[in-house]
């Protein structure tokens, strides 16, 4: 019984990580209807940026991420402004193909620079620290911080979207691009800002990815699939839905792993397909697209 | 037309094949005959290279039919390549069925599994469909990794009795005076050639048929096609299942030739989908010529640049992005626009001729 309760708690905490993976994807889709196939690789790229900053400057990853955030915002802004804005339009293929190409370029670029060796972000004692909950169950501090950060990111994104001028512009371009342009909004800049923000969220996700487990240049596509599943399970258009989707995916994986360790990933995928069959628009849909 | 009486009457006819495409058809037949006879002269490396070229071309034609015409941009076709490969291994190793018979069975089973798969992924639209198909392919990979009888996660090899069990190998050995491994390659070569030619012919016939007209309409404007009474969902389903069957058979053939399978290789998104997408897009999506040109370019790049490893893939990704941004109709699109060329006459052209001599009596 304790084992099962433990699995449930770990599943919710793992869901925090998946929600962090998914929040950036959800943000980009919400603002510009772009499905970024390179999203998983961008998270891995962010993890390597944090790693380099931490190692070069001898900083703790939690400090290094603060330096990495503006760097990644600029990379994201530039990527959208120079490249991805050109792919947006009625045709679906250009954004898909260009982000798929980016995914392959980032993966192999990282392989070339960092080799295929596994890396890890080192932060000393906090990595293994845990809080006992009684009854033989303990939660790791890093997984707990992951979930709290995911909640904080969702709160922050909601504040940005509903309480700030840039958020108003995000919603306006999302609702009706042409009218927003007529109102004097430069959508290229708005889209670029949204991508920059998504990269910031990806960097926060990357911090916990690197603290919780090993990473190497090839693990991006699997993270993209988890992020995508969390977004669809939660339903499009709501950050809280994305958080819930991440938690459901995390639960499905830990429950599957509890039955047979080899079934962890498979049961996550099957939970996603089951939601798709029963509730094609996700559990908490808000947008109509 | 009421106004017909005033001006010179015009006659209309619909033309598909032009002079160039008829010439190309003749050249194509001669080239096909040449390829059939090639093992009589060519060395083993060339045979192996051409097998690779043939199956990549066949896969690209399949993906092009799916994505280029019906707009079903799948990133999960590796599901059916891997499925076909695993079916071949299962049927021959565990079922004792001859590999030549296992290939069409793999096609049928792939089609049968494509139906329920479609019911799930068709719930997703556009880009979400793409990632959905990828998830399904991952499910297939993880499920096949559980089959301990076929080696589980590490995979397994075909026994020599299976790989030599293709009918005709003894005959090839006797006729061409080669050893068993070379004879196996030649048998695979002929099979790959036949499957590639059949895929091209099938795609061509589909596009020339009444359904093909509907497919072209969907490609050009889906809503308008629906408005004209094209049953979009049904046609998409038929194409998805047909492409799955062909892809499954190609997968079975690929793994008959490789003689070794593992879940990670058989369901590789890079090998069986990314490359295929780049071939189609670089060559020109939505045409039959595009994948052919793309496959030849890809083959040359693979042959001369694959040693550069990661740099080669970076180059391929960059090339794909550049083509998509600068020439979205691909290299063939550039040529076709400039010289008004069609090699595979799948387009219907309206030819308007002024025909004063045979003026319509009623006008």
Compact summary:
The complex is a heterodimer of chains A (289) and B (363). Chain A has helices at 2-32, 39-57, 61-83, 93-114, 141-163, 165-175, 177-182, 187-212, 220-234, 239-259, 264-278, and strands at 130-134, 137-140. Chain A has 289 residues and is mostly helical.
Secondary-structure blueprint:
The complex is a heterodimer of chains A (289) and B (363).
Chain A: H1 2-32, H2 39-57, H3 61-83, H4 93-114, E1 130-134, E2 137-140, H5 141-163, H6 165-175, H7 177-182, H8 187-212, H9 220-234, H10 239-259, H11 264-278
Helix pairs in contact in A: 1-5, 1-8, 1-9, 1-10, 2-3, 2-4, 2-8, 2-9, 3-8, 5-6, 5-8, 6-8, 9-10, 9-11, 10-11
Chain B: E1 10-15, H1 19-37, H2 44-70, H3 78-94, H4 99-121, H5 126-144, E2 156-157, H6 160-163, H7 169-176, H8 180-208, H9 210-220, H10 222-227, H11 232-258, E3 260-261, H12 263-266, H13 269-283, H14 289-305, H15 310-326, H16 330-339, E4 349-354
Antiparallel strand pairs in B: 1-4, 2-3
Helix pairs in contact in B: 2-8, 2-11, 2-13, 2-14, 3-4, 3-5, 3-11, 4-11, 7-8, 8-9, 8-11, 13-14, 13-16, 14-16
Report on this model:
The complex is a heterodimer of chains A (289) and B (363). Chain A is mainly alpha-helical. Chain A is built from 11 helices and 2 strands. Chain A has one domain (2-278): ABC transporter involved in vitamin B12 uptake, BtuC (Orthogonal Bundle), CATH 1.10.3470. In chain A, strands 1-2 form a two-stranded antiparallel ribbon. The longest helix of chain A has 31 residues, at 2-32. With 363 residues, chain B is mainly alpha-helical. Chain B has a single domain (17-347), classed as ABC transporter involved in vitamin B12 uptake, BtuC, CATH 1.10.3470. Helix content of chain B is 70%, strand content 4%. Chain B contains 16 helices and 4 strands. Chain B has helices at residues 19-37, 44-70, 78-94, 99-121, 126-144, 160-163, 169-176, 180-208, 210-220, 222-227, 232-258, 263-266, 269-283, 289-305, 310-326, 330-339, and strands at 10-15, 156-157, 260-261, 349-354. A two-stranded antiparallel sheet of chain B has the order 1-4. A two-stranded antiparallel sheet of chain B has the order 2-3. The interface between A and B is large, with 41 and 43 residues.
């Amino acid at each position: 019984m304790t084992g099962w309760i433990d699995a449930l708690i770990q599943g919710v905490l793992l869901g925090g990580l998946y929600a962090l993976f998914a929040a950036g994807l959800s943000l980009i889709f919400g603002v510009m209807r772009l499905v970024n196939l390179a999203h998983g690789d961008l998270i891995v790229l962010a993890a390597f940026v944090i790693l380099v900053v931490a190692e070069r400057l001898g900083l703790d990853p939690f400090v290094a991420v603060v330096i990495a955030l503006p760097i990644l915002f600029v990379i994201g802004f530039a990527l959208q402004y120079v490249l991805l804005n050109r792919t947006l339009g009625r045709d679906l293929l250009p954004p898909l193909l260009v982000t798929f190409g980016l995914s392959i370029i980032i993966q192999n670029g990282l392989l070339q620079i960092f080799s295929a060796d596994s890396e890890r972000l080192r932060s000393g004692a906090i990595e293994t620290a845990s809080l006992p909950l009684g009854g033989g169950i303990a939660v790791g501090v890093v997984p707990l911080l992951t979930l709290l950060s995911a909640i904080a990111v969702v709160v922050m994104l909601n504040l940005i979207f509903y309480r700030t001028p840039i958020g108003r512009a995000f919603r306006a371009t999302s609702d009706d691009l042409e009218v927003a342009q007529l109102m004097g909004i430069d959508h290229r800049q708005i889209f670029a800002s949204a991508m920059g923000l998504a990269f910031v969220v990806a960097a926060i996700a990357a911090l916990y990815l690197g603290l919780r487990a090993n990473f190497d240049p090839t693990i991006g596509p699997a993270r993209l699939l988890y992020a995508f599943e969390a977004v669809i399970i939660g339903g499009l258009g709501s950050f809280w839905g994305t958080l819930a989707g991440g938690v459901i995916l995390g639960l499905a994986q830990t429950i599957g792993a509890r039955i047979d360790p080899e079934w962890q990933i498979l049961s996550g995928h099957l939970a996603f397909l089951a939601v798709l069959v029963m509730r094609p628009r996700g559990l908490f849909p808000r947008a109509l697209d | 037309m009421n106004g017909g009486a005033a001006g010179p009457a015009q006659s209309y006819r619909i033309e598909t094949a032009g002079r160039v495409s008829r010439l190309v058809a003749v050249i194509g037949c001669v080239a096909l005959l040449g390829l059939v006879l090639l093992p009589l002269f060519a060395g083993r490396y060339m045979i192996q290279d051409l097998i690779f070229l043939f199956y990549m071309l066949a896969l690209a034609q399949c993906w092009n039919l799916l994505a280029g015409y019906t707009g079903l941009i799948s990133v999960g076709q590796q599901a059916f390549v891997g499925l076909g490969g695993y079916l071949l291994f299962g049927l021959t190793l565990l079922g004792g069925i001859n590999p030549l018979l296992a290939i069409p069975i793999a096609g049928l089973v792939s089609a049968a599994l494509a139906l329920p798969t479609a019911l799930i992924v068709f719930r997703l639209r556009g880009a979400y469909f793409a990632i959905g198909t990828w998830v399904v392919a991952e499910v297939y990979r993880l499920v096949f990794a559980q089959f301990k009888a076929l080696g589980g996660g590490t995979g397994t090899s075909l026994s020599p009795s299976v790989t030599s069990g293709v009918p005709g190998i003894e005959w090839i050995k006797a006729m061409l005076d080669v050893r068993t491994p070379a004879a196996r390659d030649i048998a695979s070569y002929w099979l790959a050639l036949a499957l590639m030619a059949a895929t091209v012919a099938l795609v061509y016939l589909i596009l020339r048929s009444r359904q093909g007209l509907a497919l072209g309409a969907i490609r050009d404007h889906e809503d308008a096609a629906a408005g004209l009474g094209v049953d979009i969902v049904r046609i998409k389903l038929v194409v998805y299942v047909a492409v799955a069957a062909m892809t499954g058979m190609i997968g079975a053939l690929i793994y008959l030739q490789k003689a070794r399978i593992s879940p990670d290789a058989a369901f590789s998104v890079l090998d069986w989908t990314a490359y295929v997408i780049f071939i189609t897009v670089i060559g020109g999506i939505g045409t039959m010529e595009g994948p052919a040109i793309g496959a030849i370019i890809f083959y040359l790049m693979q042959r001369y640049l694959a040693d550069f490893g990661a740099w080669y893939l970076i180059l391929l990704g960059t090339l794909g992005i550049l083509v998509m941004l600068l020439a979205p109709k691909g290299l063939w699109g550039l040529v076709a626009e400039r010289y008004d060329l069609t090699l595979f006459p799948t387009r219907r052209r309206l030819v308007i001729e002024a025909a004063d001599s045979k003026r319509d009596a009623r006008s």
